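Attaching the record inline, Q. Sequence:
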Amino acid sequence: MTKPILSLLTVVVSLLSIVNANGQWIETNGPYSGVVQTMLIDGTDIYAGTSNGGVFLSMDNGSSWSRINDGLTNYDIRSIVVNGSNIYAGTWNGGVFLSTNNGLSWSPVNNGLTNAYVSSLLVNGSTIYASTNAGVFKTNNNGSSWTAVNSGLTSNYTTSLATDGTNIYVGTSGGIFASSNSGASWTAVNTGLLNPSVKSIATDGSNLYVGTTSGVFGSTNGGANWTALNNGLSASIRSLAISGSNVFAGTQDDGVFLSSDNGASWTDVNTGLTNLSVYSLATDGINLFAGTNYGGVFLSVNNASSWTAVNEGFTNTYVLSLATDGVNIFAGTINNGVYLSNNEGSTWVKINNGLGDFSINAIAIHGSNIYVGTVGHGAYLSTNNGSSWSAINTGLTSPSVSSFAISGTTIYAGTQNNGIFKSVNNGNSWTAVNNGLGSMTITALTIVGTNIFAGTGGNGVYLSTNSGSSWTGVSTGLTNFNVSSLANDGNNIYAGIYGRVFLSTNNGTTWTGTANTISGTGIKSLLVSGGNVWAGNSTGVYLTTNNGTSWSQINTNLTTTDVRSLALAGSNIYAGTMGGSVWKSENVITDIDNTDPALSSHFTAYPNPARTEISITGYNPAHIKLVNALGQVAATSNLSNKIFVADLPVGLYVLQLFDKNGHQIKAEKVIIE
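Structure, as predicted:
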């Protein structure tokens, strides 16, 4: 049966091109979700502090969100408070930031704050308190200066703060401490508190509640005595909120619980709450917001009887993998499954029907088949553009699939702890192919002709020349054997390790380090197109146009710089980030014509479309190359007038002819059907 042909005319531009390094990054419109660690309601303004995404603001009750991070140098937000016209954000390893204009801009206010790991902030009159992992600090001058106030604290790892108007309470890893003199001294108040690991504190003035890793405890006498309040509740508590006579508890894995009798009994209230890891709660008496772990924000307007996700504009998704067929872009995320965009990121749709695991390590496309590798449930296949998925794990004994590589009808899957598996029937069954592998932790795979390369965690690169039947280590020249990414353009093979890219031009026999000018941690993603190589890591995206002789950082406007995946579609580069969703750099390709006009007019390729082979008339090239929509070499031939294509996926390709000196004399679009 003839399969649909991809409509990828714009892809040709990228395959016959050089890079314009001045391309700037813009956020795509998603995917929407996030890790929400703190929430604050201030009139009609709602603030959400996220992990690795900074601060988001909604002015329409959560219907839409905007990122407001100008001036922030740390995006791990643990607490937000308001004092008059001042907004304070406490960060993890960045200290405290102040905004005086509703979050439009921020400035650090850390003079005297000797510990930058801020877990909680509290406003009490004109004084602001900060809990850190080295005790409590306070300021009386809007953060201009801070003073440590830790007298009496026997546990300085502080997690939470609250006040009942008389006393200030601080939760620690060693229980609750109270101060009646503005922090000048602290006294332990732990009688009856059976679990000292305090995560949250809430008070309505007369009742004091603490959330611990073993439930809720309550006190009616300022912490002098505590009573376990866990009837109907058996969960680790991450957050607490009080609205009138209702007490809400957000849990680590079991959603939200409600008590209307001062904690004497609890009922789970999770209808519509599709993410049950609730890190933060905020209420104004009518609206109740829940900030979740990887699920973004949910809103209830009926005391938690039902919930609705309110994540429009909330671009705090963690994207581990990207794949594209030139039109459709698939994004694999942590805890949110797979998203699809068919309009260059203008909109994204979640496509998880049938998936048993929503953390996606890898995505690969082969014709109409889409494969995803998950963190804990193996591999899945979709044959209908992601509308539904089926598990394909027969013989695949590892639950964590980290990478794929496809050669014709053969699929290779690299796994976290069980090596490499091979399928010759679209994943219906798998066979382990690990003979000779020195490490079962496979981080990356790439194929060059009949050679398969595997990157490992700790043992460098391995090569198989016999379809995986045996493997040989090929790591000579590598200075670090923790390989995090692999890519190739045919002749050149690139390996990403910690902070550096290595190049092999002889099938891995030897490796040479490219320019050591990439800062940050491991190279998590490599993308090759023509003579251009992009590398993504914790400090953003880097580009080389000269095989790594030099690298340029290309981060203009890219505010979330922890890049885990890269993809090329048309003239756009897409970057999947940790906590910043997907970004796009438009028109990074500048079209050029590098053919020989004196010879190219004599060249004809037929048939076009083709199914089994393409023949050349009018000129006898020394070398033929077929490049797919991603700029990857799909097939090569040293025959003077023919290249075989029967094993290639359907789609649009560029057929390139070269003379004996390596000069490209012609390039033409061809379709494989």
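Residues 379 and 393 are 6 Å apart (CA to CA). The mean pLDDT is 91.

More tomorrow.
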